[in-house]
Structures are given as structure tokens and as C-alpha cells.
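Bench log. Compound arrived from synthesis this morning; before running ITC I wanted a structural hypothesis for how adenosine-5'-triphosphate sits in the protein. Inputs:
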Amino acid sequence: MDTDIVLAADRIVARYGSIEALHGVSLSIRRGQIVALLGANGAGKSTTLRTLSGLIAASSGSVRFLGEDITRVPAHRLPHRGLVHVPEGRRIFGDMTIRENLDLGSFTLTDEAERRRRLDHVFELFPILARRHNGDARNLSGGEQQMLAIGRALMAAPQMLLLDEPSMGLAPQLIKEVMNIVQRLNREGVTILLVEQNSKVALKFADYGYVLKGGRIVLEGRGSDLANNDAVVSAYLGGVAA
Ligand code: ATP
């Protein structure tokens, strides 16, 4: 077994009712990497993340995390093991304060000093969240909500983050800010699987990338190679239907 591999999916199949959305997706992510999962609208990127994090049960295939089979582990147990999913659309709780949203990310933690350490880390990364910690989350801008969603994930002290389109709906300057944070977290030791429709953004940072189309991986390679590969541009940026 390659002990460097943090997360590995082996031929996962996922369905929504009678519709098969993933037809045997395999990927692996090594410790310390940022890996991009690219593809057009409907290609299966979010479904892949949901299957990896247990929100959807794989109908066949397997998922291993840190050497253990997690295929049947329920979603709510995975943050505790070090795998945290930041879903598309952020899913923050607007009528709760920023601090309350952050606390949700560490609700299983009983060590108050450790919670404080994690909170200080999040506030250092995102000073805006510190300044407004008593304010309702609904009053945050889109970019700030994305920061809160990442901050909440960090409260679980993850070894690995599954990030679903953190750039969605953000202005270029904010995309840059969010991606700088992603890169910093990665340098601090967090392994990252990054779903993006915006391949330009993702491949700037990714060590490795996979391209999904119609529920299958159609291309994979080093980030820099994919960034210079015309096939990616036509299959992906060109907007060919998934
Ligand atoms: P997007 O960028 O639009 O989120 P995606 O690559 O993440 O695209 P998925 O959302 O994973 O794609 O969708 C993969 C396929 O599964 C699509 O055909 C989509 O219509 C279908 N699908 C996704 N979510 C559901 C659902 N809740 N119920 C039924 N079908 C779904």
C-alpha cells in the first residue's frame, strides 16, 4: 500500500434513483497535494465529492481514507476522522452568528482550550470573521460567506478538505483571496481536493488534476501539463456538453 495516498476512490458508481451519475470514478490524492477535479456543468463533480464524503452511498466501488475503508461510514462521522466537505453554496446558517456557525464545525470537541486554538487560527486567517463574530451570518457578502464555510470546516482540524467551487459567484479579487487561503492551508499540511468549473483558477494551484465528463474521468495529469493541454480547453472550457 502506498502510505502517501490520503484518499483513494476505486471505481465508484453513484446514482440518483434510477439515474447513474458516476460510472466508475477512480482517483487518488497524495498527502500534501492540491488536486483539482474539473468538468463542465453536470459532469459529476459535486456528486463525486458527495460520494467521497458519504452524503451519497456509492452503489459500488470503494473509498479509502488514511488507509481505512470509509465507503460505508456515515457522512457525520468523517469530520472527526479528518475529512471535511465544504459543499457548493456554502450552507451557512444565516440566522445564527458567525461564531455560532464556527462552533458547529467543532461540535464534537470537548476540549475548550483546543476549540479556542482552532478559533484563533480561523480568526487569524479571516480577520473579517473575528471583527464580526457576533453578527448574523446572513449579513456577510458572498466572499465572506465562503470564508465562513472554510472557517467552519477548519474548526474540525481536518487533514483533508473537499472544496466544492469556492470561487463560485466571487469577483476576481475575492477568488484570489480565497485561493491564497487555500494555498496557505495546504502549506500548513492540509491535503485538498478542489472542485472547480473555472479550470484556469484551479490549475494555477493544483499539483494534479482530473477532468470529469458524463460521470467518467476522461483525462488526468499534472496541473501544469493540463493547464497547457488543448484537450482540456476544448473538452472543458469549450463547454462541450458533459
Ligand atoms: P455543477 O457544476 O452544475 O454542480 P457537477 O459537475 O457538479 O455540475 P453534478 O451536480 O455532480 O455535476 O451532477 C452530475 C449528474 O447528476 C447530472 O446529470 C445531474 O443532473 C445529476 N444530479 C445531480 N444532483 C442530482 C439530484 N439531487 N437528483 C438527481 N440528479 C442529480
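What the model suggests: The chain has one domain: 5-92+153-237. The radius of gyration is 17 Å.
ITC booked for Thursday regardless.
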